Amino acid sequence: MKLRAENLSLTAQGRAILDGVSLDIPTGVSFGLIGPNGSGKSTLLRLLAGLEPRAQGHVMLDDTRLRDLPRREIARRIALVEQQADTGDALSAREVVELGRTPWLAALQPFGPEDHHIVDQTLAAVGMTELAARHWSTLSGGERQRLQIARALAQRPQVLLLDEPTNHLDIHHQLALLRLVSRLQVTVVMALHDLNQALECDLLGVMSGGRLIACGPPATVLTPERLRQIFRIRSTSLRDPSDDAQILRFHCLEDER
Ligand SMILES: Nc1ncnc2c1ncn2[C@@H]1O[C@H](COP(=O)(O)OP(=O)(O)OP(=O)(O)O)[C@@H](O)[C@H]1O
Questions:
Q1: What is the number of the ligand 1 atom nearest to the C-alpha of 36?
Q2: Which residues form the ABC transporter domain (predicted)?
């Protein structure tokens, strides 16, 4: 499913926190959003999910305006995992993932074998099968994060929006998650702080001060000049001798005075 933002803007407390963001994300592409703290990445993800009624501009899913779709239809197409995703303490891990099936249920279509199968599959996909009976309140930060991603996957969305999906995960689970996401046949937009992880996306967008200031393939976007300007760092590009993949290293400009 193709995702398009047309001139998205949002003002909060008299300040433009998102300012005229337009982008086009082709079907099946992984799109990384990078930018300093407070640059508007989470806000943009929320607007793309249709969660901000005060926003100006439009989000288009293929040829349909998000605003014209009922909430339930949006939830069948788009899943969002926010940074501080929380849920009721009383739920088990499995029940959290079951919530992902809600948009697909109806009075005449209660939770059935297909839903159980999808929940089993997504729990396994994030390595949480063993912990399925555990209560949410007893889970670690990384386990909760993997569960929220499983909930989103159980929604079977066509667009997956992830806000810093790797931030609580150990390195094994970071790599496993990025591998899982890269293999999904869905359009993915994810905010990332790790610029080496961002290099693996098909396309990148750079946010700064609420605006999208650059967009394109990682190699054209992550230039040393732009990284210096946006993050106030010096970067060097290296090659991994095992597969010639690009790796970035960073140096604080303050250390070089
Ligand atoms: N409801 C609000 N009222 C006022 N300001 C807000 C509100 N929501 C967000 N902001 C501000 O808007 C800016 C963008 O916030 P946002 O969370 O989108 O940034 P971000 O790029 O995701 O940051 P981070 O990398 O720190 O997660 C920040 O300065 C934030 O303080």
A1: 25
A2: 3-234
